[in-house]
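Re: that chain you flagged

S.,

Sorry for the slow reply, it's been a week of failed gels. I finally had a moment to sit down with the sequence you sent. For the record, here it is as I used it:
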Amino acid sequence: MNLTLHKSKIQNSSSVTITGSKSESNRMLLLQALYPQINIVNLSNSDDSQVMQTALKSQEKIIDIHHAGTAMRFLTAFFATQEGREVILTGSSRMKERPIRVLVDALNDLGAEITYTESEGCPPLRIKGKRLKNNKVSLKANISSQYISALLLIASKLESGLELTLEGEITSVPYINMTLELLSKIGISTSFVDNKISVKPPTTNLQPQTLVVESDWSSASYFYSIVALSDIGIEIKLSSYNENSLQGDSVLCNIYNDFGVQTTFAQNSINIKKIENCQLKTVAYELNNAPDIAQTIAVTCFGLGIGGYLTGLHTLKIKETDRLLALKTELEKLDAEIDVSDDSLTLKANDIFDFPKNSKHSKVEVESISTYNDHRMAMAFAPLALKTYIQIEDAMVVSKSYPTFWEDLKSIGFIITE
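Prediction finished late last night. Pasting the structure tokens below so you have them in one place:
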């Protein structure tokens, strides 16, 4: 379904409750499958988390996780440890193009039995569950942190735990720390010193406990963009967030200060307020630890007419789509001047949204943004409706991480029609 976002103005002092973090939810779900005494509150209502729950409960031989990349990585590790169980883990056509050899090789080095059923190095995977007796493995550190987290999440169930050596510069450290913090919360001993991570099996039975999922900071990023593109004084309240968050994308608080957006924490919520217009001509951010907010930041920069140089984006090329190429293609539809490399994006400052001087992007001629089966493409471009009319193709792709996104935008003043 395509949606047209009419040029809108948001209501001041709006409130939005955002679902639990997909990243935290999927980690907790896997830990709950290993340790059923864990109870989880505020689970994400995203497609990815629903797919994860369904797969963990399934007794079928063929398990299809569709577009859910996190589920593919985590479940590969999980099923490798399930003795006597054999599954085929598959997904969408795009998923069958996404590399997973690094994780498969590491698991096989630990004693797993995983083979490819179609293309070498990519899903679908045939996984024969076994008791993994080895406890030492090395992994290149500059790949997706989900490979690392997948190993860490099953580590406490290995006979001797796990000693993981990371080779080279480590990518997305906050996501690794999130996994280790969750393990520590349930009583599993871990350490992360220099480039070595160790996880020990529990010495006693773990106690029943409840884990609460914090709301998703990646989802909050779109509201930061909305406030940044709004008038001074506009404020939105978002729930539920912790000042000491485990999520790397909480760096939004600092980044969006540059765009004139102030963040205030109060009673498990944040108030984000536009306090001044951005005076910068260009900004530069290294996003190695928070690549999922790159699309949001790039579109915010474009909407404000400022230049941007974003680096540390090498993992974006193996997401739901090649996000760097997709950003370039769609922003160029709006006359942006943008260049991308394998790990960076350079956006030139512009005055494209200087209404009413520019009549190209008007109600009569609505630009249509392709989303490439990528939820973040749809949501990152939505805030531009504060500047112009825009159409989002395949808009319900947002259900992957944020099913109520369009309803929440309507609730704060966006005018949206099919």
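What I noticed first: The two ends are 7 Å apart (CA to CA).

Talk soon,
D.
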